[in-house]
Amino acid sequence: MKNLLFFDIECSNGHDICSFGYLLVDNNFNILIKEDLLINPNAPFILAKKGEKPKIQLAYSELTFKKQPIFKHYYSKIKRLLSNPNNMVFGHSMASDIYYLKFACEKYRLPLIDFQGFDCQKLYKTIYKKDHLQSLSKMMEELNINSKLTLHKSCDDAHLVMEVLKKILKEKKLSLDKLFEKFPDCKVSSLNILKKTYKLKPRYSYSIDYKKKFENNYKVKDNI
Predict the structure, then answer these.
(1) Domains identified in the chain, total number
(2) Which residues, including other chains, have CB under 8 Å from residue 207's CB and lie 6 or more apart?
(3) What is the longest distance spanned by two Cα atoms in the chain?
(4) What are phi and psi of 194, to 5 degrees?
(5) Alpha carbon distance 16, 71 (integer Å)
(6) Is 224 inside a domain boundary?
(7) Considering only CA atoms, which of 111, 108, 170 is closest in space to residue 144?
């Protein structure tokens, strides 16, 4: 049987990754590994418009993130986790995470990461017949999931996605096999997402202006 990999990404400014957290469990949801990969985004931390309070609070200080290696250092590990055929990948709002990964790969001139996954946010919207996609905190509230885990701490968010999935399976009396069978539209392909909606997300493209700004201001010293 395959293991289940839950992951979550946080960014410093809407597109530059500053953490990749994951939770690896067996098919009985026993935790095998839980880890938060902290990443120097090599970019400013902009979590709100000027003069406004940030909508989210990251789990670590800006200084802590800046002391970490850049994304290029973690690329091989992240790629192995997501593309491992022995892992079933789950996430929340996976299209956004796919674009963050695309942005990082293009920024450091790395091959895009091709992987398949299952979006629990889309599942929740479908199975509970919601008018729009729900935040992770809202899903927890509506499912009566109480937790001391920290929102916007990537490894904890990944853990919370697992708790949401477990609750849905229990409430709807579904196995994982039945879940995949009944809700195929919640399956995600990273390359298909990019092909279908790339033109709708121009801010994630690796523009010449950004390339020049990056090369002038952020000198890459890390190696894979």
Answers:
(1) 1
(2) none
(3) 55
(4) -65, -40
(5) 9
(6) no
(7) 170
CA-angle at 116, arms to 30 and 190, nearest 5°: 130
- Kindly report, residue by residue over 93-150, the tens digit of the pLDDT: 999 999 999 999 999 999 999 999 999 999 999 999 999 999 999 999 999 999 889 8
Q: Which two tokens stand for residue 64?
A: 């802590």
Distances (CA, A) of 125 to 122, 137, 148: 5, 14, 24
Is 222 within a domain? no
| Angle (CA) 35 37 43, round 5° | 160
Residues 206 and 187: their CA atoms lie apart, in Å, by: 27
CA angle 218, 219, 221 (to 5 degrees): 130
Residue 59 belongs to domain with CATH number: 3.30.420.10
User: Is there a domain that residue 122 lies in?
Assistant: yes
Range of the domain at 47: 3-214
Secondary element (H or E) of residue 4: strand 3-11
Q: How much is the pTM?
A: 0.85
